[in-house]
Specification:
Helices cover 60% and strands 15% of the residues. It is α+β, with helices and mostly antiparallel strands. A 4-stranded antiparallel sheet has the order 1-2-3-4, with no helix packed on it. A hairpin with a 2-residue loop joins strand 3 (161-168) and strand 4. Residues 124-131 have low confidence and may be disordered.
């Protein structure tokens, strides 16, 4: 898990290098404010996969050396053979449960707060739902209001989303969104 975490951090940092430079923060500040929230998120994604791979690897090694046959031939019941797997599965599921319901949400708060306050403010298009749309139409209603439709189909004269936005003091406020 640590190796794949290092790879995920390396890939993520290479993608966000320009954004990190724009914030003007030091490496330590980026680590404590961004990666402290990002790493637990990656662990929560990788943990079930690596538990599965470890169980398969361990059991296949035992089967390759005929240890499973020897254990069952010695009179050990199949339920007794599976007991360590069940206990280990329950313990690892409890660890994942604790992580997903107590620690990961706190880490996500750190991660998303950094994204909203530091990275997204340098790129206003990241706050929008779609950055580009070929079937979108916009119309200015008055000096501060705009309306538009997304995913317009000219054949059926239907659209997916109607929205109305207002711009006040160079900030965009979505006042109305109607989805079909």
């Amino acid at each position: 898990m640590l190796l794949f975490t290092v790879i995920a951090v390396a890939v993520d940092s290479s993608e966000k290098t320009d954004d990190f430079v724009k914030t003007g923060l030091s490496n330590w500040e980026i680590f404590t404010q961004y990666y402290i929230g990002f790493i637990p998120f990656i662990w929560s994604l990788l943990f079930p996969l690596f538990v599965f791979i470890a169980v398969i690897f361990f059991t296949s090694k035992m089967a390759m050396r005929s240890e499973v046959i020897a254990i069952l031939a010695s009179g050990t019941s199949f339920n007794r053979y599976l007991r360590p797997y069940i206990i280990g599965g329950i313990l690892l599921a409890a660890v994942l449960f604790m992580g997903r319901y107590y620690f990961i949400p706190k880490a996500n708060v750190i991660y998303t707060t950094f994204m909203q306050q530091k990275l997204d403010k340098h790129n206003p298009l990241k706050n929008r739902q779609e950055t580009s749309c070929s079937n979108c139409f916009y119309k200015r209603i008055d000096s501060i209001s705009y309306m538009g439709i997304k995913n317009f189909n000219p054949e059926t004269q239907t659209s997916g989303i109607f929205f109305m936005e207002r711009v006040k003091k160079e900030k965009l406020f979505t006042t109305c969104v109607l989805k079909r």
